[in-house]
Design goal:
Distance between the termini: 4 Å
Order of helices and strands: HHHHHHHHHHHHHH
Structural class: mainly alpha
Strand content: under 5%
Shape: globular
Largest sheet: none
Radius of gyration: 20 Å
Length: 333
């Protein structure tokens, strides 16, 4: 069970954290588009993560939490560089040359790479038919969701199109590696402190990239529209502080594969927001994709649901015959 939490309280916190990661990160597509109307992409990443990290670190200091431990800062920095700077930075950059549908499809490979790189749990994940089927089903659902738009947009190929594809293929690998790094490192600091340092260090890494891209010279703060400032505020408070903090905490109390299901659910939220707030059209294949994606999340979590419902009745899970002698080390104790 989650340390120092009663069972019902722990379950409630986990449900809330998943809801935040699913919904808020699904909405960031919409708000990032608003933000880049006034901010250059690399500068936007720097502003978003530095401010979010400083605000969270300040909050931790007010709560008298220890905010400096050299080893923990270094470990947090590695995770932040991999997840926020490399993975998210690639996504921001390639959206200048690739259609958003292609970006969404390739980023949805995060859960697959979480399984591939999670060597410590290969015996569990690769022998769990529900998990494997869920991963494949979720990716198929994303293809259904964006397949029609992808076919229409790939006809317009720009000069950097193929270079963008190569770069984007690295983003899910970096995100999965950073997630597993963060999960595997023991820490003497609170999760919120480690999260703050991840964002600060990643934000600082965006600054030289912004300078190399000559974004400082072209940026005029007075010319930034109000909607872009409000979008940055949303990304800082909700997309970074609330959602990323929830994600890092979930990595400590749930398996990386289970937490990685956000990569399948976020596109669902993005489509729904587009329909209800941007007047976008949703057709049959969109609905089919949404259903398939939600079903994949159920499959990935199915074994844990069965374990909970059949607690005290060992051997009754239909998947136990595949791995009776194995035991997951990523469940909450």
């Amino acid at each position: 069970m989650t340390p120092n939490l009663k069972p019902k309280a722990a379950t409630l916190y986990i449900v809330i954290a998943f809801a935040i990661v699913y919904v808020v990160w699904g909405s960031t597509y919409f708000f990032i588009r608003m933000a880049v109307e006034g901010f250059p992409p690399m500068l936007m990443g720097a502003v978003r993560y530095i401010l979010a990290g400083l605000l969270l670190l300040g909050w931790c200091a007010l709560r008298k939490q220890p905010i400096w431990n050299f080893r923990d800062v270094i470990n947090s920095g590695v995770g932040g560089i991999l997840m926020l700077f490399i993975a998210n930075g690639i996504v921001i950059w390639v959206e200048q040359v690739l259609p958003s549908a292609m970006v969404a499809i390739m980023v949805s490979a995060n859960p697959v790479w979480l399984v591939v790189l999670d060597k410590a749990n290969w015996r569990v994940n690769l022998r769990n038919p529900a998990t494997l089927l869920g991963l494949i089903t979720g990716f198929a659902g994303v293809l259904l969701l964006f397949g029609q738009e992808l076919g229409q947009q790939t006809a317009h190929v720009t000069a950097g199109y193929f270079q963008g594809i190569i770069l984007l293929a690295l983003a899910p690998v970096a995100w999965a590696a950073g997630s597993l790094w963060s999960k595997g490192k023991t820490s003497n600091s609170p999760v919120s402190v480690n999260t703050a340092w991840q964002m600060i260090i990643a934000g600082l890494a965006f600054l030289p990239m912004s300078a190399l891209n000559n974004e400082f010279a072209a940026f005029d703060a007075q010319a930034v529209p109000l909607r872009s400032w409000l979008a940055i505020l949303y990304l800082i408070l909700f997309g970074s502080i609330a959602a990323f903090s929830s994600y890092v905490w979930l990595l400590k109390v749930r398996s990386a594969t289970q937490v990685g299901t956000h990569s399948y659910v976020n596109p669902v939220i993005a489509v729904l927001l587009g329909v209800f707030f941007a007047g976008e059209h949703i057709g049959f294949w969109h609905i089919a994709g949404l259903v398939v994606i939600l079903f994949s999340v159920l499959l990935i979590n199915l074994d844990k649901y069965l374990k909970r419902s059949l607690q005290g009745s060992p051997g009754r899970s239909p998947f136990n015959w595949m791995r009776r002698r194995s035991r997951t080390t990523t469940c909450v104790e």
